[in-house]
Amino acid sequence: AIIFLTGHASLDSAIAAVKADAVDYLLKPVSVRDLAAAVARSLERRAQAGRLRAQRAASERFLEVGVVTLDRLRRKATVTGLGTLGDISAELTVTETALLIHFMDHPGIGLSCAELAQVALGYYMGDREASAILRPHISRLRKKIEPDPSHPCLITTNPPRCYIFNPHPTLPDS
User: Fold this and answer.
1) What are residue 97's phi and psi, to 5 degrees?
2) Residue 32 pLDDT more than 90?
3) What is the mean pLDDT of the chain?
4) Is the entire prediction scored with pTM above 0.70?
5) Cα angle for residues 7, 9, 12 (degrees, 5° grid)
6) C-alpha to C-alpha distances, 33 to 29, 38, 39, nearest whole angstrom
7) 3-class DSSP state of 11
8) Largest CB tally within 10 Å, which of 33, 68, 143, 156?
9) What are phi and psi of 36, to 5 degrees?
10) CA 48 vs CA 91, 109, 120: distances in Å
11) Is 159 a residue whose pLDDT tops 70?
12) Where are the beta strands (DSSP E) in the chain?
């Protein structure tokens, strides 16, 4: 587990911490008590993640919604039924898998960045900060599963700052 300690907190350093899969982000100087609490939270998250993995392993391995199928065990997404574009298959990170599962559990519903950050990263934060932190994760997920990531049709952005999963996208004619 990674716990970031910084004397110069900034949005860039917070994003770097998320990209490094840090479990906590503390501003120096930090008390021993606060550091011990961060370690305790980290250990609890690890235990909780283990319990969730066990629950998911016991539940259905494959999640299928519309054109997207997710193998939860292998963290592999497959997009089929795209006509002449062919199928797309991609290996996902833990964060991308958590995001996709939440999207697939809520098709057609606008999900706020704060909600997605809490579900996928375990962080409670405001929409503005969550948007900046989630943007690279959503971008990488789109690059892996979208037929044309520059014009997303599966995961679309809907102002103000929310994302919608469309399991039955309408593709432009080729």
Assistant:
1) -65, -45
2) yes
3) 86
4) no
5) 130
6) 12, 9, 10
7) helix
8) 68
9) -60, -40
10) 24, 27, 13
11) yes
12) 2-6, 22-27, 62-65, 68-71, 76-79, 88-91, 111-112, 155-158, 162-165
